[in-house]
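[step 3/7] inverse_fold.run input=structure_tokens len=79
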């Protein structure tokens, strides 16, 4: 499962980040790396942007970036 598969309110732990270069450095500096817990705070209407919270830091990722972050869901929001 990848980060792009999650919905608002879900919680997950990062299993693998498969990006390189400047994007890898950016994600690392925001605390987005293997073992980090995250919470899906918001999704844009077209789900093209995902707003997440990692270690009290809120950031937004593009859908294409989120597809490169493998996660394991630890809590699913009931609708």
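[step 3/7] decode complete -> sequence:
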């Amino acid at each position: 499962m990848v980060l792009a598969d999650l919905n608002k309110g879900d919680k997950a732990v990062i299993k693998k980040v498969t990006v390189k270069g400047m994007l890898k450095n950016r994600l690392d500096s925001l605390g987005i790396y293997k073992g980090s817990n995250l919470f899906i705070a918001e999704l844009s209407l077209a789900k093209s942007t995902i707003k997440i919270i990692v270690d009290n830091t809120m950031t937004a990722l593009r859908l294409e970036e989120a597809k490169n972050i493998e996660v394991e869901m630890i809590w699913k929001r009931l609708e």
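[step 4/7] annotate
Residues 14 and 39 are 11 Å apart (CA to CA).
The radius of gyration is 11 Å.
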